[in-house]
Amino acid sequence: MTRKMADRLAEATPPGIARKIGGLSDRSLAWLFIAPTIFLLLAINIFPLIWTIRLSFTNYRVNRVNADVKWVGLRNYERILTDPDIWQTMQVTAHFLFWTLFFQVLLGFALAWLINRKFRGNDLWTTLIVLPMMLSPAVVGNFWKFLYQPQIGLFNYMVSFVSGVDPASFSMIGSIDLAPWAIVIVDTWMWTPFVMLICLAGLRSIPDYIYEAAEIDRASKWRQFWTITVPMVLPFLMLAVLFRGIENFKMFDLVVQLTGGGPGSATEVTSINLKREAFEKWRTGYASAYAVILFVTIFGLASIYVKALNRVKER
Amino acid sequence: MSGVFRRFFSGLMRLRRGPWEMLASILIALGVFMMMQPFWMVAYTWSFLVTLTGTVMFIITSHFPE
User: Fold this and answer.
1) What pLDDT does A2 receive?
2) Is residue A36 part of a domain?
3) Would you state the pLDDT for residue A28?
4) Contact residues for A270 (Cβ-Cβ < 8 A; gap 6+)
5) pTM given for the model
6) Cα–Cα dist A20/A35, whole Å
7) What CATH number should be reported for the domain holding residue A203?
8) Chain A CB within 8 Å of residue B57 CB
9) CA-CA 20 to 30 A from A100: which of A6, A65, A83, A195?
10) Gap between the Cα atoms of A100 and A79, Å rounded
11) Considering the domain boundaries, does residue B66 fall inside one?
């Protein structure tokens, strides 16, 4: 069947092109096939990156195209790295990163451990748990905004039911103290299933005979958990942490929909701050330097991620 | 423990990939921590330089022999 199709394709190729291709080496053919991808990569990724690096050394403003563009050297970088407000947004991002990763790992692993046991309706539960991950962040942000409403929000009523506090007495997205936790809760709700799926893959990759051997050696369930389950799932868990860490470092859509960075700048993560600098204040050169700083940070983290991934592959 | 350190430093001296990548990873992690910690402004100021050094070092040392 495949042979037939290959023959048909060969026959359908115009003789001129067939002659040209026939004269090419395997290496040239390989280059010919990947050339469109390389071209797109250069046009969409590499060129804008180089252009951004170049702009980061200037005072360019995209809304003043006719103004003189001055070379300012490292001044943009210097201003960003000595600005307490940007340092504050970094801390907001760190708070968001740390707590989302902490809860997602804890709950994701616990859920995976429970789902990995054989019980009736296992598949249905897995599907239900995975549902939040499939929703758009914009949709999730919007409907959680309703859930957090002090007057009509279901979340406030649930907290009121559990703690006895008046539901209208607190606003999750209107309070400086609670708003950072509001985005942590939503991100945890949305992305815990992802961590769960990766942990589940890890748990299912552990062969049963290892547990059987441990049983024969009279190892307790607690010991089996710490000496077999945790070490064998750890690389997967690490991958999940790195995936989520990199994603959450550039979190934008969910926070914009939910709090818009407010109240004040309580939930202004770096990506929102960057967008304000670039498209509200129109400080393009400054925003480019900011973007380069974030890019290098994410690139560095991604390098460690690739290294960890290779280690997992080797195992 | 001292054997691990000896192997690590010997790898560094002989320009081996493993220890150099480890050093670069530590620099990147340190840089990210410095950038996001809430205690010391000076650490934030120098964080980018540390992360950049780690990242460039990682790119270079990933071409070192195993």
Assistant:
1) 55
2) no
3) 85
4) A86, A89, A90, A93, A249, A250, A290, A294
5) 0.81
6) 17
7) 1.10.3720.10
8) no
9) A83
10) 30
11) no
The single-letter code of the amino acid at B56 is V
Using an 8 Å CB-CB cutoff, list chain A residues near B32.
Answer: 297, 300-301
Provide the domain count of chain A. Answer: 1
Q: Which domain holds residue B8?
A: 2-61
Mean pLDDT by 10 residues, chain A (315 residues): 70 77 79 93 93 93 85 92 93 93 94 87 86 90 90 88 85 89 94 93 90 89 90 86 86 89 87 91 93 92 79 68
Q: Domain containing A262: what range?
A: 79-314
Chain A positions touching B21 (Cβ under 8 A) are: 307
Structural domain includes residue B8: yes
Judge whether A166 lies within some domain.
yes
Question: Given an 8 Å threshold on Cβ–Cβ distance, is B36 in contact with A299?
Answer: no
| Chain A residue with Cα closest to B43 | A81
Pick from A81, A91, A300: CB nearest B54: A300
* Res A123: pLDDT: 84
ipTM: 0.89
C-alpha–C-alpha distance, residues A191 and A197, integer Å = 10
